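In this section we walk through a basic example: taking a raw amino acid sequence and producing a predicted 3D structure, encoded as discrete structure tokens. The instruction is simple. Fold the sequence below.
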Amino acid sequence: MSELSPAASGHEPILASFGNVSVTHHWVVTPTGNHPIRGTHWTVQDLGRLEEKISTTGIVLAILFVWFCLLGLLFLLMKDQRWVGWVEVTVTGPGLHHAAIIPASPTATYEAHQFVNYCRQLAVV
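The resulting token sequence is shown next.
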């Protein structure tokens, strides 16, 4: 069970947050309640990847221009890129196990690593 904290009453400011996890100087705030940050263990997993596929526009242009010296086939080199997957931050501690998940992107991965490093510093103090 979570403990009652100054963060619950609004006396302690939120220092950082990622997904649905926030931290103050002394507390981890999750949807299940508030837990002391001291002694918590933080991990981050990047489960995203960049997918590439032939662009629909490239296929249409290749079909239209295939009869012009076969140069239309160069349109098949057009690629669409998108990020798929997610970034997961997990916090564990006495009576606490919570994972925050957000869609993957280079920015989300960077922010997750920064958040976890900051939380690890707070957990040791």
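Looking at the output, two observations stand out. The first strand starts at residue 16 and ends at 18. Confidence is low (pLDDT under 50) at residues 1-7. In the next section we compare this with other chains.
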